Amino acid sequence: MDSTDIAIVGGGAVGLSAGIALARQGWRVVLASRGPVRRDGRTIALMDGSVRFLEEIGAWEALAPHAAPLASLTIVDDTGGLFRGPPVTFHAGELGLDAFGQNVENGTLVESIARVAAATPGLELRDALMTGLSTDGTHAAVALDTGETLRAGLVVGADGRASPVRVAAGIGSRPWTYEQSAVTAILAHDKSHHDTSTEFHTRAGPFTLVPLQGKRSSLVWLTNPARAEELAGLDPEAFALAAEQQAHSMLGAMRLDGPRGVVPMSGLSVDRFTARRTAIVGEAAHVFPPIGAQGLNLGLRDATDLARALGPAGGDPGAPERLARYERARGPDVRKLTAAVDLLNRSLLAGLMPVDALRGAGLLALASIGPLRRIVMRQGLGAGR
Prior knowledge:
alpha+beta; eight-stranded mixed beta sheet; monooxygenase; FAD; oxidoreductase; flavoprotein; FAD/NAD-bd_sf; FAD/NAD(P)-binding domain; 385 residues
């Protein structure tokens, strides 16, 4: 039986980042994962705090040449309701920043972090899947499909929304679904995006264009499942025209410039973030629609807070007091943001006049009250915790 300080299950961006951060603190870490990175037109808008975390673990330098800055964020009420609010634009300069963050293709992000992980002393990557997990008062045992068993002081579940680690640890979860799917794509367009991400709030959900390098943007288009499948089945020219029309030709003529994907929308919350000798991060701990570019950023905050809770290597990484610090750090942040995103998404789908009026009043307040707008921006960056 192999022995290590920490075993991480799952090799996405959050699991890899957590592995690097913990290994850099001196812990012996083994990360088990399998499967190629899938490219489906998804990009990740990394907020300023996430960029700084990736800088700290040495992963940003290789990513920077592939990223596009997000200098402004615009929300447009495109619901057609009677009480539509005005467009609201958040400028990074209001917070003294050059950009809120950087947008990069998901595949490029994971591949770049994986290269850093492979070169990190103290972090071992294994091509394996977990088949079983047991814990006792002193250690956890992770069974792998290679026939090996890992003995660790702490197991970190970074294994996605279905999370075998979460299930095996007995951490309760509450999943839900939306009558929505997200169509993802990369588009080229005739006009400059001026480093501005634009989120149109429609009755079917947000339609979001996030800048990439040059005259290119990534698209996340939430709509009903039947419409999503219809869009995914269009030929490239027809799809690009549909996106251009939905964007009110804001960026001029559009062309498909990469793969497309369709992702059913769902949500998930958990009862707790830790169990005996176990912690969960990323989508093992929280899932919600891609509104406000918060999903992966929240997962990277999980990795940051887990590293802080464990501290420099020494002693028992799965000690109750260390896990309690992580629980205290993540609980309020995750639950607050999950509730806010879920409420906003459901308010778009509701189509009720009182709800429209409240949402319109909120946008009006953000447009006209500078201090309130800056508070919301800091919350979105994770700076208001």
